[in-house]
From TrEMBL:
Gene3D superfamilies listed in its UniProt record: 3.40.50.2300
Protein name: Response regulator transcription factor
Species in which this protein is naturally found: Paractinoplanes lichenicola
Keyword annotations of the record: DNA-binding, Phosphoprotein, Transcription, Transcription regulation
Domain Response regulatory: 3-121
Lineage: Bacteria, Bacillati, Actinomycetota, Actinomycetes, Micromonosporales
Organism domain of life: Bacteria
Coiled-coil annotated spans: none
Sequence positions bearing 4-aspartylphosphate: D54
InterPro entries from the UniProt entry: CheY-like_superfamily, NreC/VraR/RcsB-like_REC, Sig_transdc_resp-reg_C-effctor, Sig_transdc_resp-reg_receiver, Tscrpt_reg_LuxR_C, WalR-like
Amino acid sequence: MIRVLLVDDQPLIRSGFRALLDLEDDIEVVAEGNDGDEAVALARQHVPDVALIDVRMPGADGIEATSRIAGEPGLSGVHVVILTNYGLDEYVFRALRAGAAGFLVKDIRPEDFVHAVRVAARGEALLAPAITRKLIDRYVTWPPRPAAKLDELTNREREAVTLVAHGLANGEVAARMAISQVTAKTHINRAMTKLQARDRAQLVVIAFESGLVRPPHQN
């Protein structure tokens, strides 16, 4: 069962999302909140698999909530997905840097919304490669700031991270590197640990910000 926390300061939005999720046999909404402070408190209380958090709320917003949740070792298994009305903007990028697994625009189709919750619960990033490149291209400061531990990566780990940053899934990374999926996942997980990336989305951000991967216009 996928356990979900919903946090949005608009009750109508929350009730709409909850109605969609309540129709699914494998998803349970365990709590609802109104702001970032409640998001953190409820995450501590329920430790959900997925926390759907509005990016802009009065008081503590989704960015602060994401940062606080991502910073607590006991909540390392909580995958934060940012909800936004605005699409690609600086708030979304800041949330990704803070540790969000991805973002969803609130006018998403119902079937895509439910699918996204399942994807997030599996620990996969909710970022299409094209969207990632747009975010990085718009908000990363150039020249890049090298990650402190980038030099600790092995050549194979660097290669795996580069492929992930270009949007490849584990199976595609394995095929490109001519290794098993288990080995590919091991390389990726070790790179995440060394770079202190919470998840694949943050790993992608680090890859671009460090200069390991460069946006097309910088090549």
